[in-house]
Amino acid sequence: MASNGTLTDVAGLRVGHFTDARRPTGCTVILTPEGAVAGVDVRGAAPGTRETELLSPLNAVEAVHALLLAGGSAFGLDAAGGVMRWLDERGFGVPVGPARVPIVPAAILFDLWIGDPSIRPDAAAGYAACETASDAAVSQGNVGAGAGCSVGKLFGIARAMRGGLGSASITVDGITVAALVAVNAIGDVLDPSSGTVIAGARTPDGRALFGTMAALRRGELPAPLQVGAATTLGVVATDAVLAKAQATKLAQMAHDGFARAINPVHTMTDGDTIFALATGASGRTASVTLLGALGADVMAAAIVNAVRAATRLDTAGLPLLPAADEF
Question: Residue 53 sits in which domain range?
Answer without folding.
Answer: 7-326
